[in-house]
Amino acid sequence: MLLPSFSQHLNSQSCWLLDWGQVPYSEAWEAQRKLVLERRENPDLPDVLILLEHPPVYTLGLGAKLEFLKFDGETVPELHRVERGGEVTYHCPGQLVGYPILNLRRHQPDLHWYLRQLEEVLLRVLDVLGLKGARVPGMTGVWVDGRKVGAIGIKVSRWITMHGFALNVCPNLEGFRQIVPCGIPDKPVGSLEQFIPGIEVDRVRAIVVAEFAEVFRVEMVRAEVSQSLLH
Questions:
Q1: Are the CB atoms for 214 and 124 separated by under 8 Å?
Q2: CATH number, position 57
Q3: What residues make up the domain containing 210?
Q4: How far apart, in whole angstroms, are the C-alpha atoms of residue 36 and residue 106?
Q5: Mean pLDDT to the nearest integer, 63-91
Q6: pTM of the full predicted structure?
Q7: What was the pLDDT predicted at 163?
Q8: Would you say 87 is a known binding-site residue?
Q9: In this structure, what DSSP letter does residue 33 have?
């Protein structure tokens, strides 16, 4: 289903980059499942990084608590309970989402290591942009001046990863008011736009690709995808 643009560059440390635009959550979710299944059946297939944005949607982790939803009942938004860890979160345009489909046996089969590596990618992106990002002990994600700008939620099956990270570049943050984001009531959600007025997702996308490649020590190979993966 996947066709790399430059097949001569493929090697054991290659990572296919699927750089999509705005994709409905359900379609991207199904695409991840297909990619994971392929790699469970054939572990030699290259790693993949999907980058995209979603139309407005809420997702709940597998064990997420409904008490963190604050919908008034009159308007029922799109909501999915998915197999990742973590509590409820919100996706919308202006938020850059990354779904790495990695075989951790090639890297390090350790979930804590993987979470810290994803945080490291986001911290490096912030540093390139001149922002001082930080971790919060005991929590997963990345903060700037006490505002959570990067969220992480993953699923790993037979050491193949899915789901991933979301970086708030320039989203409308109003949607977060309808939930307790990530189940953390005392730490506000923020965006890069609050610190860098006028920043756009396109500026950040290339930085994410470069820093992801550096942190995971892979060669990014831009790939094309057949329509069957998204339907």
A1: yes
A2: 3.30.930.10
A3: 13-70+77-224
A4: 15
A5: 78
A6: 0.90
A7: 96
A8: yes
A9: H
